Amino acid sequence: MNIQEDYVSFETAKLLKEKGFDWECVYFYDYYEENDKYVVCSTGGSCNREYYPSEYSMPTLQMAMKWLRVIHLILYVIYHSIENGELRFSWRIYKLEQDKKHYVEKLPRIGEYYKDSDESFTTYKEAEESLIKYCLENLI
Fold this sequence. Notes:
Elements: H1 10-18, E1 25-32, E2 37-45, E3 55-57, H2 61-72, E4 74-83, E5 86-95, E6 112-116, H3 124-138
Antiparallel strand pairs: 1-2, 1-3, 4-5, 5-6
Helix pairs in contact: 2-3
């Protein structure tokens, strides 16, 4: 069985660049404004530098979530529930206090409760994308 990585959407990649994400990624989005279209390209670096205005690094969802945790001390839990007989996914956010930064990799659930998602999602991937977008739009 070949396991596929899940990558952030183009919209989330744009938000990540705006918020300072600069980690190296294997792929990036190259946006063509005149056509309002983008293509996925392979690189091996970070495209989120100012001299690449039409390129957006394309991290995996897990890489983006790690960046939130390590750089911005935002911790999270994605959990499941059954709603009307259907499996659904939601998230919860915690903010880590600055003086507990050394716990980030060891104890990923230490922190002050911040917010639960306002909706639930049909897939884990949708919950991850929603969590990342919420953090970028509201916490950073």
